[in-house]
Amino acid sequence: MESAIGVLVSQFKAYAGCDGSSDTLSREEFHKLVTSQLPNFVKNAGDPAVIDQLMSSLDENSDGELTFLEFWQLIGRLASQHGGFSQ
Amino acid sequence: MESAIGVLVSQFKAYAGCDGSSDTLSREEFHKLVTSQLPNFVKNAGDPAVIDQLMSSLDENSDGELTFLEFWQLIGRLASQHGGFSQ
């Protein structure tokens, strides 16, 4: 499990580091991450409206940037769906 | 990222399926999972008191079982520490 967690952390950092704050995902970075890393887990990942909606549902303090823990809530939701757990 | 998420889900299921409800972790299952899967991320994982404290901090509805999403909060915290993000 630790190596899988390490993969998620390093991938988050790789995308978060593209522009601006290296510890948070901008909308653009989030879009890139979702389309390239989560193409099967997020439906219609290519649709900008889907990305906007997802981003605003996660961005708890509405600052236009996703922290790691905000992003983690999405992964948890996707993982839970993927695993077939009741929500 | 999707394969790493898949690993976390399947490992959770493998431990959750040992006894009782196959979708949740009992204290015993949680203890086994932490000591064998997260030995470096959780300090003093072998100490029952550490496990008890961790379990009660995660078990939001205090039913003695951890759902996947309750467990996910722990992984997020560990991942965040591992990644050196501010909490």
From TrEMBL, chains A, B:
The organism's place on the tree of life at top rank: Eukaryota
Transmembrane segments: none
GO CC term (a single one): perinuclear region of cytoplasm
Keywords noted in UniProt: Calcium, Metal-binding
Residue ranges the record marks as coiled coil: none
Sample GO molecular function, one term: calcium ion binding
EF-hand domain residues: 46-81
Protein's UniProt name: S100 calcium binding protein A11
Organism this protein belongs to: Myripristis murdjan (pinecone soldierfish)
